[in-house]
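Quick one, T. Sequence first:
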Amino acid sequence: MHDDKPLVRLASPRDRNSIRRDTYLLRVKLGLNKTLYFPIVEFLENVLPEIDPTFYIEVLEDVDLPGVQAEYAPSLNVIRVKSSVYEAAISGYWWARSTLAHELGHYYFHDEKSVRYAKLDPGQKIPPDFDPERQANVFAAELLAPINLIDGLGVRKIGKLCGVSYEIAERQLRVLAKVKSRKEKKRMQKKKRSSSKA
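C-alpha cells:
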C-alpha cells in the first residue's frame, strides 16, 4: 500500500506575539508606528528594493498567474502579482492590500531554508504556529491594523482608516481585548502579591 497523502508546508514556529513584534519594529524603522494606513504598494515598489536590492515585485497579466492572486517565489526573491490585483491595491481595495501584505509576510518569514515539507500523521493538522499561511495572514493583519493603533475605534472606522476588511478589524479587536485582559490579570496578580507582602 503506497502513501498518497499530500505533503504539507511547515514553517519555523512563530506565534502571534512574535509576528506582532516584527511588524511593529518594521513600522518603527519606517517611521510609520503612529500611521494607521500602511502604504503597502509604495513600500513594495520603492522602499523594500532599497532595503533589499535583490527583491522585486513583478506585475503580470492575469492569465500569466492562473489560480492565484499573488505569490512569493523565495528562490528569485520576487512577489508576483496579477495586474488586476495590483491595480486594486493602488486604488485602496482592502482585499488587494491584504493580498500584498500576506505575500510580504512570506517574504519576511519563508525562505527556502525556513520552510520544509512533511507528511502529517493521520488526522493531524498543521500546528497553528508552524503554518506558513497562518503566519502570513497574521503578519498582514498586524501590519495593516496594528492593535496598538486601533484601540478605541470601531470595526467600520478601522476598516476605513487602515484599509482592511471588517473581518480583519473584528479579529484584531478580539486580539486586542485578549491582550488587555492578560495585562489586567498580570496587574491584579502583582497588586495581590505586593499587598500580601505589606
